[in-house]
Design brief:
two-stranded parallel sheet; 53% helix; 211 residues; single chain
């Protein structure tokens, strides 16, 4: 269990919104599946599993983060052989499948993570879950908050992308962790709703291939 509070109001928000979004975005998920299948038919190198699973850490516990697969089969094999993780490879558009270039633009590959939220692996808002090697390196640098707080589908560091006043992601994460410790349930709920609203605005810009 995390030693940073995970209030019941936050869990209710997570479960309610995640369930509603899964229903509301079902047609989008179907379209993403169709795009992926079409891409695999067009390009043999794009063939592979529909979903990609990667070990991440939330509140000190490993879990399988779910995503629609956006990397080509050969790139994914290289990532696994090197013990790396998908996000680094996804930064190079040449590594993406035909459908992946469409899905990444609006972060649609992240939709399956709503199931992670329903399962309790993630909260809607919090520090993003990092791969195990990155968390180990962060611990060695003296930051262990990813062992103590439930990770998020989105968070303050994500909505600050391309800001005129960029801040280090860890600083923003730690500010949010402090809010979890100190804010009342009502103020925490308002904070999470504001971050979710900022996330929607970020998604609408369609700049996922830039980050």
């Amino acid at each position: 269990m995390p030693d940073v509070p995970y209030p019941s109001v936050k869990r209710v928000l997570d479960a309610t919104v995640a369930a509603a979004l899964l229903v509301a975005t079902a047609p989008v998920s179907v379209a993403a599946t169709v795009l992926t299948v079409v891409g695999m038919l067009r390009r043999p190198g794009d063939r592979g599993p529909l979903l990609y699973r990667e070990r991440r850490i939330s509140a000190g516990r490993e879990f399988d983060l779910l995503k629609f697969r956006t990397l080509r089969r050969d790139v994914l094999a290289r990532v696994r052989a090197e013990g790396s993780y998908a996000r680094l490879a996804e930064a190079d558009e040449a590594n993406l499948t035909w459908s992946g270039r469409i899905l990444k633009r609006w972060y649609l590959d992240e939709l399956p993570q709503l199931f992670n939220v329903l399962r309790g692996d993630l909260s809607l808002v919090g520090p993003r879950p990092w791969p195990v090697p990155m968390v180990v390196a962060q611990r060695e640098a003296g930051l262990d908050y990813r062992d103590r707080v439930v990770a998020g589908l989105t968070g303050p560091a994500q909505v600050q992308k391309d800001s005129d006043e960029p801040a280090r992601g860890s600083d923003l994460d730690l500010e949010y962790v402090e809010r979890l410790r100190t804010l009342s349930s009502a103020r925490l709920l308002a904070t999470d709703l504001a971050i979710l609203a900022d996330t929607v605005r970020l998604l609408a810009r369609g700049e996922g291939l830039r980050f």
